[in-house]
Amino acid sequence: MKDKKPRRNNDRRNQQKNNRPKERRIEPIEPTESEENNFVFGHHASVEALQAGRGNKLFMQEDAHGDKIDQLKSLAKEQAVPVKWVPKQKLDTLSDGGVHQGIVLGITPYEYLTLDELLGKTAAEEAPFLLILDSLEDPHNFGSILRTADASGVSGVIIPKHRSVGITPVVTKASTGAVEYVPIARVTNLAQSIKQLKDAGYWIFGTDMEGTDYRQWKVTGPIALIIGNEGKGMSAGLKKDVDEMLTIPMTGHVQSLNAGVAAGLLMYEVFRKRSEL
């Protein structure tokens, strides 16, 4: 009689296999915007941020001197913001190679408004004028638009939360501090925000190669103007929600203007028409 071979304990092995921790799938993390680097640089941007009470620590080049430096030291003292004198290389690093003029200011994060808060701020205005930036990507364009918005009396700016530049150090520098004066709301869905604006009595205008000549634009009452992406223009999904398209006539060889230039021209058209003597 042959000896029986010992049975392999398959049940035990299977149980051990089933009890092994399953390999976790790691989802890719969406990179955060550079606005997480809470620094502004340059004289004007630093002055405005200090005056707005957003300064944490002021870094200045160790050999810097002059009236502008004295002004910043005085503002920092008034706001109880510590001053640190550092080598130029340190400022180059903090400003990511930007033109810092020997000045970098650590600030608290920018606090965006909700759309409801922005509408509340403009409720007392007889004819508020809002600017909607549809997926603008260039921080220099954004900063330039904010600077013109402040100069031309725009009531507020609306930007999308995703796939759009936010308030970064470069935007703040390009705006020369206007970011501290122009209310900015950041929303999750532009289409829903436009519907809310319409319900609040706003007329919505877009920009396109074909449309009404902007010089014939009727700017009475509450209005909102959409400025499209630098390369793609306005998204197709928003065009169906627009009450009227505006176009800027051109006789040259290029097909469109820079987004910042086009926005500036249209903002000042509203300012001009509403300020006519």
From TrEMBL:
Residues 39-113 form the RNA 2-O ribose methyltransferase substrate binding domain. SMART domains: SpoU_sub_bind. Residues 1-28 have a biased composition (Basic and acidic residues). It holds the Pfam family SpoU_methylase. The keyword Transferase applies. The keyword Nucleotide-binding does not apply. It comes from the Bacteria. Gene3D superfamilies: 3.30.1330.30, 3.40.1280.10. Residues 1-36 are annotated as: Disordered. Keywords: Methyltransferase, Transferase. InterPro entries: Alpha/beta_knot_MTases, Ribosomal_eL30-like_sf, rRNA_MeTrfase_TrmH, SpoU_MeTrfase, SpoU_subst-bd, tRNA_m1G_MTases_N. NCBIfam families: rRNA_methyl_3 (TIGR00186). Belongs to the class IV-like SAM-binding methyltransferase superfamily. RNA methyltransferase TrmH family. This is 23S rRNA (Guanosine(2251)-2'-O)-methyltransferase RlmB. It comes from Enterococcus viikkiensis. The lineage of its organism: Bacteria, Bacillati, Bacillota, Bacilli, Lactobacillales. The gene is rlmB.
